[in-house]
Amino acid sequence: MAPVAGHTGFDSARLVRLLATPTTAGLPAARPAVAEQLGNWLGWTGSLALAGALNTPSPADTGPGPAPAAAAAAQAALARLRSEIARLVDDDEVLGLRSPGTDDFPTCRRAYQSLQRSMAARVAALRGELRALLARQGPALARLAAIDAALDEGLAARERHLLSGVPALLQRRLESRAGADAPALAPQLRELLGAELDVRLQAVEGLVQALGPSTNDSP
After folding, report:
1. How far apart are CA 76 and CA 145, in angstroms?
2. Do residues 77 and 128 lie in contact, with contact meaning Cβ atoms separated by under 8 Å?
3. How far is 181 from 135, CA to CA, in rounded Å?
């Protein structure tokens, strides 16, 4: 399923572009300083946890580095997750499209929210596994895992709040179009879910990349 491809960066995230509407696209984008925005999102407890992780002395890079087998395992786990989500999103029954030719958006919305919860749980599980894997690869990557854990805990509520609004934004967009039916809705739901997965996986992909190339990537 093509929509579950890798992301190209947060500012150009497909999810943001897909949800843009004439009423939102023309508004000036307020862009506060990254540190200020991050501090507002984290709150004081999250900021303290992140500061603690960041203030841990960076160890000298004297070890052999992460094992290629660890990178291969991480890449395989990420590929499996993408494949599992793709199968769910490709299933009309899972997506709530039981009656072709009708636009039963309340049913689709509940199905979308169920898929959101499934994605969130699966991504969180993989992210935790990757942090544990990094922590076994030496002090430098263990420090990265600690930083990611602090960010994950501090930003989880903010991410959950923002992404929970996606179905409502989609509904408002559909309501502005007359005669939308299930065949027209299905591709949009699938593309949105793929774009949302891209956003959810950004941190996971960063952890995978930190492990370096696997043995399969060697020339």
Report:
1. 19
2. no
3. 49
Q: pLDDT per residue over 125-173, tens digit each?
A: 999 999 999 999 888 888 889 888 988 887 787 888 888 888 888 777 7
Q: Measured between alpha carbons, how far is 210 from 86 in angstroms, rounded to an integer?
A: 25
Q: Taking the CA atoms of 41, 46, 51 and 56 in sequence, report the sign of the dihedral they define.
A: negative
- What are the tokens at 146? 């600690």
Domain total of the chain: 1
Local structure of 41: helix, strand or coil: helix
* Half-sphere exposure in the Cβ direction for 35 (13 Å, CA): 1
Task: Dig out the tokens for 115 from the structure.
Answer: 């898929």
199 in any annotated domain: yes
Report which of 130, 155, 149, 154 is spatially closest to residue 210, judged by C-alpha positions: 130
Residue 162: inside a domain, yes or no? yes
